[in-house]
Amino acid sequence: MNRSTPPPTYPSALKRIPAQTVEHLPNGLTFHYFSGGDQPVCRLSIVFQGGAAELGNDAISRLMLNALSEGTKSHSPEDLADILDYNGIRVSSSCHGHYSSLTFGVLNDKIDEFLEIMMAMLTAPTFPEDRLKSLQLSAKAQFETSRKEVSTIADEVFNRMIMGASHPLAQTLTSDWFDQIGCHDISRLHHRMLCPAKMHVFLSGLLNNKIVNSVRACIQTIPQKGKGYNLHIEPFSSEKCGDEIKRPYPDSYQSCVIMGMPLVARSHPDYIPLRLSIMALGGYFGSRLMTNIREDKGLTYGISAALIGSQEGSYLKIMAQCDKNHTEQVINEIRKETSLLASNPPQGAELERLKLSATTALVEILDTPTSIMGYYATQLYVETPSDYFEAQQLAIKELDTDTIKSMAQKYLVPDNFLTAIAGA
To answer: For the CA atoms of the chain, what is the radius of gyration?
Structure first.
């Protein structure tokens, strides 16, 4: 085998995302499910309406969701931990801009045991004070550790520049916040968020009628305890184009540089071709920024560029960490490569690599039932259009040198970059 010669590639036919099944249950809950794969496992995510924007931060929902695993009215914390472990049930949580989720991984033949324990956790948690205190101390320690990372500091500064200093999604915590949260706060949040009309359940895996029927029968009995949260969508209000903010961090040997600007919304016809053009700049391993700043000059271990879209707006985000002595050089190289994208856009083999990488990343969504259901969950979280999967494929197929050049000239103007630097 000659490893110096790349294997042949072939054009991919238009793929379609398999349809999920969506049911609106009598208690108001929306039930999504999709069956696929070849392993007898499934994943179930309970999604609550209400995230960082509605709650003021993402830490309180993480604490509440993690505390659900710390005991119920019929299970001590130790017994609950043993039951979850014995049945191979894995639990995780996450908080997004406007939604919070609790996710379980479970073996198909343990579905009945799982549903019983899940309902106890969801409807009858006890939030024992000693366990909650332990969760708080752990979360506080993780928070304080993150405050020592230049990437965290730069990210906070950049978010305020892009979103606006008072925007709900740009607010940051202090260590004191963790000391002020008590059991009553966590219990009150749980009570309010348990509102089936503002909840979704996503079920995926190698499903059969018994599993689907059992899950449906279970979740349609979830009671309403609170009124839930209405979505709080506030458009971004960016700072003046070209602004730069530095946050010194003497104890760090590295700087973190984040550069970007507000761009067009997902609904704009230029959104997808612009996203692909930004991918050419820094969205995959063979991108311009990666090739120049990492591979050729060795100034950073990694650098990325992405178009990030949400209900509030979209923005370009370029991020890299480097030695403090090379901060200005990295910034200059980012500006240079952005300008070159407009004057010397990808063509030939580089363009084909870009299109192949974009296509591969997209069709990987089809690999597993959980990744397919993850696509539908993202559709809820950020309101992507219903034809977004197919539209991206068509845009990749039609992508050419002139399109990238046009997008770069129209939108990617280095003089308009907002720049946040931490550590320099």
So the answer is: 23
Side chain identity at residue 132, one-letter code: L
Angle at 206 between CA 200 and CA 210, to 5 degrees: 75
CA-based nearest residue to 262, from 379, 411, 123, 386? 411
Distance CA 63, CA 131 (A): 11
Position 26, amino acid: P
Phi/psi for 42 (5° steps) reads: -145, 165
The span from the CA of 101 to the CA of 93, in Å, is 6
Helices (H), 266-415: 271-282, 288-289, 327-343, 348-363, 369-382, 388-398, 401-411
pLDDT digits (tens, 9 = 90+) for 292-328: 999 999 999 999 999 999 999 999 999 999 999 999 9
Q: Which tokens is 215 given?
A: 């899950």
How far is it, in rounded angstroms, from Cα 350 to Cα 291? 12
- For the stretch 158-215, pLDDT in tens is 999 999 999 999 999 999 999 999 999 999 999 999 999 999 999 999 999 999 999 9
Q: Which H or E run includes 201?
A: strand 199-205
Q: What does the alpha-carbon distance between residue 217 and residue 393 come to, in Å, rounded to a whole number?
A: 38
CA distance 231 to 184: 24
- Tell me, what DSSP letter sits at residue 347? -
